[in-house]
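Re: export button greyed out
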Amino acid sequence: MSENAPDRLVIFAKKECPTCNLVQPVIQELAKSGRSVVVFAQDDTSFMHGLAVEDDTSLKQSFLHNIEAVPTFIRFVNGLEIDRTVGWSRAEWERVSGVTGLGQSLPAFQPGCGSKTREPGVFEHLVVRYGDTGLASRCIEVGDWADPVETAYERGWSDGLPVVPPTDERILRMLGGTSRKPEDVVGRVPPNLAPCTVEKVAINAVMAGCKPEYMPIVLAALEAALKPIATLHGLLCTTCSGGPILIVNGPITRAIGMNSGINALGQGNRANATIGRALNLIVRNVGGARPGELSRSTLGGPHKYTFCFAEDESDPEWEPLAVARGFPRGSNAITFFQGDGIQAFVDQRSRKAPELTRSLAMALLAVCHPKLCEFTNALLVLSPEHYGIFQGAGWDRQRIESELHMAMVRPGKDLVQGAQGVGEGIDPRRANEMVNKFWPEGLLIVRAGGKAGLFSAICGGWTGGRFRDQSQPVTMEIKS
Amino acid sequence: MTLLLRDPTAEIASTLRPRRSPLETLGENASLCSISAKCEAMNSLIGWKT
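Workaround output, generated via the alternate export path:
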């Protein structure tokens, strides 16, 4: 703060603040008493009549003096701040100014308003313009006439769709969505095993189109994916079609507006679409899993752009997936499932629970290959109407799972390699066994979808799931 | 005003340069002879000096 007077009183104010208008006579009183008084106006320099008003519509001085509310009343002596108060309080203003009897006609106290520097989206601009962003990632200059979206394509940052340019303002705003420090390393992302900081997560979340409030979920998704048992490396580099499928549970899904209803597995919801996309961009950009390079999927699938949804937890009798996997009811958690895109399940005729069980089992047996067993996991997304049939029979999650597993036990002789004239199949040594389709923990059931339609969905798991003790879905708590 | 973006990659050697080949860059920017991308591309293709 430049100084002419050794003892100076400075007020930061804005015209739209009633308290700033209220204290005008007090400021005039101070000026008339011979004190050096300067007002910095954040929005309009014309409202403090007869006073020295500095234009701070750029908000530079407000930012540099860390103004969080107006009016802020500061006393400088020899250029150094020695005291400040916020809002109007006669006692406080008298203490700061050293003048007694101020504003006798005013109420003794009135709170102020938020500073314009703290309006949504403003602060990050000011940090970039006048402060230190603290960001460590390399800066990429985009020429005056260049398109930043095209720059992202040219640099290989995109999954094929346009990305939101990761400017410092956007990154800082994204970092505001987590209490974690930008320099914290979340983990090493395969296949390059490159360290990934919270800042890198934020940059990729910006590019994916996330809102800051999605950051805790993106971070939890990445942490889940980086657990060794999630075998992310294998999932990224496999020739199979698998990719990350994210299922989110807990009140956070409602808070950020995730979709668990109509078209829950499809397009149209920002949170669903961008959280899944952010994880895939991190894997691409930080981990280096680019198709044709280290990412080697023979066919891939649209789920590899993004596949994330919330579970429908509207029925209090239903045990949500995260609860079934060990988390307390009502907690926020995310499950990372290694899987393919959806296989639609259509049954509009079966209206009894045992009938529907047999019907679902027929479809589930086709996961991966009808003759392969204990070879992969599966995710069954039960629609409300199909779930209603089980619910009407009084079946809970455990009963549905157990009945489905039992309905999928078959004689090994029909499944061994070569049986039924098909080369694919299970180990011939199992010909005399009764064989389960999935491991007991290998069938994950979630509820989602619109209220109308006797249609559910099956997502086959990645074949790495056949190594039961080495590759499993992971559920993680979502922390702020 | 020059726009600055932050690098989303791990900033290891294989990610530090634009990934398109000079020929691709030349194709898209053939009518924009003043921009450096074309000059770089031409330089690498036929030895033009920028």
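Chain B is about 35% helix and 10% strand. The button fix ships in the next patch.
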